[in-house]
Design brief:
Elements: H1 19-38, E1 42-44, E2 49-51, H2 54-64, H3 66-86, H4 90-98, H5 100-124, H6 129-164, H7 168-203
Antiparallel strand pairs: 1-2
Length: 209
């Protein structure tokens, strides 16, 4: 028998996710799965794939909390990992060939962290709502790019430099170049897409505390 409170009723048990959070997580995960399976979420470039798959993750964090963002981010990471096995970019092709576990870490962990980062940035910003959402979207996207490329550099950067016959510093410069060329436009696009969607969902009642 469970303990009763002073009123004689059973205390409400806390669940990992509420029904609303489960619904949002399921819907955004479905969008992520669709984008991942069809390839619409990846934009192939010369040495890596730009992506919009992080957008549902950020939306999940800003409308249903960090747990939902982490779940959707995990789905993003899984499909990024699957993509790296099926049609890898030049960078991830090396990661797969070098160590598939390292490739899984590079693809999945930074994407899970997107959910946490978006939630924390939004929670600590105390400005007008539209700018709060836009800045969160932009900064989170930049952080995602840095985490993804930083993970690659930290885990397989040295063997990648040796395989290419270049100094390790050149690998760092390549990552900085990708961050500028890919990360900044991705961040701007994210802000433009995420802001009106999250504003509308907040007006509809889907808003984190």
């Amino acid at each position: 028998m469970g303990k009763q409170n002073a009123a004689g009723t059973m205390p409400a048990q806390r669940t990992f996710l509420s029904i609303r959070q489960l619904t949002v997580a399921g819907f955004l995960s479905a969008i992520t799965i669709f984008l991942g399976l069809t390839g619409y979420g990846f934009i192939p470039l010369v040495i890596m794939n730009a992506t919009i798959l992080h957008i549902p993750t950020i939306i999940g964090s800003l409308t249903a909390g960090r747990k939902v963002g982490m779940i959707v981010g995990f789905m993003f990471g899984i499909f990024s990992f699957i993509r790296s096995l099926q049609a890898p970019s030049a960078l991830l092709l090396f990661a797969v060939q070098y160590n598939v576990v390292a490739d899984a870490f590079i693809c999945i962990i930074p994407r899970i962290l997107i959910g946490v980062i978006a939630f924390e940035i939004y929670r600590h910003l105390k400005i007008r709502e539209v700018w709060r959402i836009a800045i969160t979207a932009v900064l989170t996207t930049v952080c995602h790019t840095i985490l993804f490329l930083g993970s690659f550099t930290a885990i397989v950067g040295v063997p990648y430099a040796e395989a290419q016959g270049i100094p390790f510093m050149n690998v760092i410069n390549i990552m900085l170049g990708i961050t500028a060329v890919n990360g900044i436009p991705e961040a701007i696009v994210s802000g433009l897409i995420i802001t009106p969607i999250v504003m509308a969902l907040h007006r509809a009642g889907l808003k984190v505390a």
